[in-house]
Amino acid sequence: MTSDPSGLGRGGAAALVLPALVLIGVFLVFPALWTIYLGLTDYRLTGLAAADPQVVGPANYLDALGDERFLGSTWLSVQYVLGSAVIGQACLGFAIAWLVRDRRGPLRRVVEGVVLLSWILPGSVVAYLWIALLDRDGGTLNALLNTPGAAWLLDHPMLSLVVFNTWRGTAFSMMLYAAALESVPPSHLETARLAGASAFQQLRDVVLPRIRGHVLTNLLLISLWTFNDFTPFLITAGGPEGASETLPVYVYIVALRDGELGVGAAVSFLILAVNLVFALVYLRLLRARGRDADVPAPARAATRTAA
Amino acid sequence: MISLHGLTKEFPGGVRAIDALDLEIADGEFFALLGPSGCGKTTLLRTIAGLETPTRGRVAIGGVDVTATPPGRRDVAMVFQDYALFPHMDVTDNIAYPLRIRKVPRAERRARAAETAARLSLAELLARRPGQLSGGQQQRVALARAIACHPRAFLFDEPLSNLDARLRLEARTFLKRLQRDLAVTTVFVTHDQGEALALADRVAVMSGGRIMQVGTPAEVFQRPASTFVASFIGSTPMNLLPGEVRGGGLRVAGARLPLPQEAAGLPEGAGVVYGVRPEYVDLSPAPRPGAFAGRVAVLENLGTAHLVTLEVPAEDGEPPAGSEPGGATVQAVVPEGGEPALGEAVWAAPRHERALVYHDDVLLTRAPDRAAR
Ligand SMILES: Nc1ncnc2c1ncn2[C@@H]1O[C@H](COP(=O)(O)OP(=O)(O)OP(=O)(O)O)[C@@H](O)[C@H]1O
Ligand SMILES: [Mg+2]
């Protein structure tokens, strides 16, 4: 009985998980393998190679890795992730969560409402809003700053995208950190305050050690989302001159606009690999944390008293 | 010395947790704040610490007004009910944390932490994390952290309430000795009156954000200033029976009792509350003058004694003003072996020199003189 707690028997258990396995195989594993295969061919959207793709081996991968444009896109993606996710969303989200942490009432609800709104609006809508905001002629920002004719999207495309994505994604970090801060016992912060700790020392000594897991989870998720984010295409279409062509935009342009499906598949697979690396690093960190995490024990003591 | 003047704390929403409270706590004193749940003890302690800002009134520590001083500069240490040990630091780092904030060099603060830990028999546990300690050990680490930085005052918020009954007794004795050795002013919040009486030099009994009585444990126990304090203090609640002045004596629950000298000025028919602790009630199987006649309704075993609850039937005549028509309940503590049987008719005679008489909720009886004790 010990090896079969559900009592289904081996066959019954297999029958139970089979549909899920089939779905995963059809919709996840097969496309991934197919992408790897395509990446090894000269498959194109149109033309001769579309009808009869030839296997060209690792040429697509090697070409991509040696291609200026690919490397440039990678660097832009790194800027986009570091600037808008790690620095923008995570820091701003934490700052807002920290500042409203013991506020109740209208102020907090208004702040949360505004921040959330930017998050729940559809991507196409916010893209349009930002184009309207940053437009050279008649853009709202130029009217506000009284800088007619400033072409934000042309002169500072990456900066514009970083600000945009920070604005768009901060809500998630804010909510996650707000929930994490709730888990910091007030008595711990008060003990530090009584010892004379400054706000920075309270953060360093009490808050951060406690919410490390939340910080990791948050950074992983927003890094992945931002890395794979395609909304920049809706705002700048990768331009001007590829100055805002992050990797997902690059794949789209190469594979679907230029029709080089084989190269696109190869780059897609590289993106997938980057995602996997993110996830592995995260799992590693999380496991390391699990080892030295100690549950404080007043709860344990309390149960003993009750007994 | 900690002095509070007209201290009031109102929370948003109109809850007045502390109400125009005045209090002086002497240097080196072990002072207990005692009261039922929600009476404002924690709020008062937190206001002294500076974690709450009073709505009105002043707080002075050592003669200096600290009402506007942030908690970190008041030089007080607080031990919270949950101990608030930092789970990611080992015992040494926890104890040394306030020293670290004060920029004491690392070697010195480790030495001081080790020294304090040794004093609290924690020397073996210095490298452990709080999660690897028992409740009693955690409580001592929290104490050590408070002690190691040599504050002007300790503020303890129910530090023993998470311990089991036996450990709590040990910790109590330990705490008392420690405080005596250190001679640091200590304010101790508890809702356990036994703890307050056992530990404190002086006790303040609170209710509804006000102080009902301040005094030594003996004063508060023997001469509770109001019926609230009388009913709150004591391991078995005091018998508080309505009665009235009649014919130069007291008429209480069917018994005729002598009128104490201090109550002689009361007019005929004046309503009083007659209080006597169950420990000062003697039972006898035969009728006696000045005793309540009743039937044994409940028997509770206290270990070395029994708590006997008597039903005293309503009087034949009109009941005294304020008493329930259904008769009264009188409790008595009888030593082992002397307990009556359930349902038996017995007579309960209060010891008059121990009785307290309240009129308009003011204690009339004076302290018994030495001869009477
Ligand atoms: N932050 C707060 N906001 C609003 N009301 C509060 C707050 N803290 C305490 N109160 C109220 O103030 C009153 C006193 O609370 P306090 O915590 O001081 O009671 P206590 O005597 O310590 O009770 P206990 O023995 O249960 O700990 C209570 O009525 C409580 O509901
Ligand atoms: Mg409390």
3D architecture notes:
The complex is a heterodimer of chains A (307) and B (373). Chain A has 307 residues and is mainly α. Chain A is 77% helix and 0% strand. The radius of gyration of chain A is 25 Å and the shape is globular. Mean pLDDT of chain A is 81; it is low at 293-307. Chain B is elongated and about 75 Å long. The two termini of chain B are 34 Å apart. In chain B, the strands form 4 sheets. Chain B has a 6-stranded mixed sheet, sandwiched between helices. Chain B has a 6-stranded antiparallel sheet with strand order 13-12-11-14-20-21. In chain B, a hairpin with a 3-residue loop joins strand 16 (292-301) and strand 17. Chain B is an alpha+beta fold. In chain B, helix 2 runs parallel beside helix 4 (135-148) and helix 3 packs across helix 4. Chain B has 8 helices and 21 strands. Chain B has 2 domains: 2-223, Rossmann fold (3-Layer(aba) Sandwich); 236-371, Nucleic acid-binding proteins (OB fold (Dihydrolipoamide Acetyltransferase, E2P)). The interface between A and B is medium-sized, with 29 and 38 residues. The complex binds adenosine-5'-triphosphate and magnesium ion (MG). Adenosine-5'-triphosphate binds next to strand 2 and helix 1 of chain B.
